[in-house]
């Protein structure tokens, strides 16, 4: 998807607010999961959640385990249909899922090639971006290693690199640094800051109070709603 395009996903429900600078807007998002073994009983996870993302900000998405952060992010990226609400996005969206979606028999290089094609990137752009990410996250030495031979930390690096590869306008990262050591954790924030400085927008699911100073603002997921701090 080119940066000039606007994708509008209209789900049953409300209309979204939309300003000229908005990169992503979600309004009135509702989502319930069916409970196993309890017919007709549904667990309401999101009940009117919403968010807006603007260029040049890094927003932290926080909340207790099971509060619905991952569900919300999946709805934002279009990986999961909501029951109600509207998501409107502008430009390219990058998504780093909490659980890496990778192919155990493919190497890091092969993943990057595959995702680069899926994103419709020219080969030269894939190579440039790949080299920058290998260096930025310090895992070039695993380029030719199959994913099922990688440590958890290196797998997390690949998962993150696949989201960063097309240099998306909006980056949605679901606990991207699980398994990172301190050096990688700092490298991760350098990459995020470099994107923010170029006017990109980054939404990060985070647990750590220690991250608080890194965010432009924080959004809490609680009782199925989103609360700005
Ligand atoms: N596919 C699913 N089917 C049924 N319940 C789910 C599913 N995914 C998540 N849930 C439930 O929805 C709630 C929110 O989950 P999740 O969005 O993963 O929360 P968080 O990311 O904040 O920890 C939890 O109670 C979880 O068990
Ligand atoms: Mg989660």
From TrEMBL:
<feature type="domain" description="ABC transporter">
    <location>
        <begin position="27"/>
        <end position="229"/>
    </location>
</feature>
<dbReference type="GO" id="GO:0016887">
    <property type="term" value="F:ATP hydrolysis activity"/>
</dbReference>
<keyword id="KW-0067">ATP-binding</keyword>
<dbReference type="Pfam" id="PF00005">
    <property type="entry name" value="ABC_tran"/>
</dbReference>
<dbReference type="GO" id="GO:0005524">
    <property type="term" value="F:ATP binding"/>
</dbReference>
<dbReference type="InterPro" id="IPR027417">
    <property type="entry name" value="P-loop_NTPase"/>
</dbReference>
<dbReference type="InterPro" id="IPR003593">
    <property type="entry name" value="AAA+_ATPase"/>
</dbReference>
<keyword id="KW-0547">Nucleotide-binding</keyword>
<dbReference type="InterPro" id="IPR003439">
    <property type="entry name" value="ABC_transporter-like_ATP-bd"/>
</dbReference>
<protein>
    <submittedName>
        <fullName>ABC transporter ATP-binding protein</fullName>
    </submittedName>
</protein>
